[in-house]
């Protein structure tokens, strides 16, 4: 009996194997800092956090940056203001860069899910675009709840993400294949509230990373990102 073959199926290229979060950011490396340099919403959130800590009379504050990357601009701004800063990242390349660039902060290669810290021991925590690669939607919610538990009453939390309805979705980001998860804006903000936080502000904006200029990928592999920034506080 004759058989037929679907030519489109035969011609379809195989999807590349997605990178783990660690391999992804080891590959991108410190050039990530250049690609996102000048992000105004991030600068504004750092200013808000520094002002909030000052207004609350917390100095030096014990702070945690989840997915710290090269340590700039977040850890450097907090450390330069006199705060006690711990930055963690799953990428060894990023931690090496951070240790060199921000000597007045402490850095460890560590996944937030493996952080063994005393509850209610931090005054502030930040997570800039770090709860996307290598996590599920349920894990994102669980990490936000973990951050809530780590903060002292009155502690501050800044979270930014690319708010999409995605759960273990394989995508290409800056030319690199990865499995990503995120939450759409309303669900993301609600996840922060569900953890127990008071949401102070939420903002959605657009940003085109300078990834091609930073040498990470080709210009056609860069897309304008939607960003969600959430400012929150743990009730006193």
From TrEMBL:
GO molecular function: methyltransferase activity
CDD domains (alphabetical): AdoMet_MTases
Chain ranges of the Methyltransferase domain: 64-155
Keywords per UniProt: Methyltransferase, Transferase
GO biological process, one term: methylation
Name under which the protein is recorded: S-adenosyl-L-methionine-dependent methyltransferase
């Amino acid at each position: 009996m004759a058989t037929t073959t679907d030519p489109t199926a035969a011609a379809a290229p195989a999807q590349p194997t997605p990178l783990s979060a660690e391999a992804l950011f080891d590959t991108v490396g410190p050039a990530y800092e250049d690609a996102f340099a000048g992000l105004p919403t991030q600068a504004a959130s750092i200013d808000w956090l520094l002002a909030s800590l000052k207004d609350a009379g917390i100095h030096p504050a014990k702070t945690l940056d989840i997915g710290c990357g090269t340590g700039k601009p977040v850890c450097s701004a907090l450390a330069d203001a006199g705060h006690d800063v711990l930055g963690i990242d799953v990428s060894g390349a990023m931690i090496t860069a951070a240790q060199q660039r921000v000597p007045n902060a402490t850095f460890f290669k560590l996944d937030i899910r493996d952080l063994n810290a005393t509850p209610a021991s931090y005054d502030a925590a930040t997570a800039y675009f770090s709860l996307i690669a290598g996590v599920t939607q349920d894990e994102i919610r669980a990490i936000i709840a973990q951050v809530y538990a780590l903060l002292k009453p009155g502690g501050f939390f800044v979270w930014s993400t690319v708010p999409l309805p995605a759960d273990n979705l394989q995508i290409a980001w800056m030319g690199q294949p990865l499995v990503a998860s995120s939450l759409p804006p309303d669900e993301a903000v609600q996840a922060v509230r569900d953890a127990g936080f008071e949401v102070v502000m939420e903002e959605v904006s657009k940003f085109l990373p300078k990834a091609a200029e930073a040498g990470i990928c080709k210009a056609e592999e860069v897309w304008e990102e939607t960003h969600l920034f959430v400012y929150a506080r743990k009730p006193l």
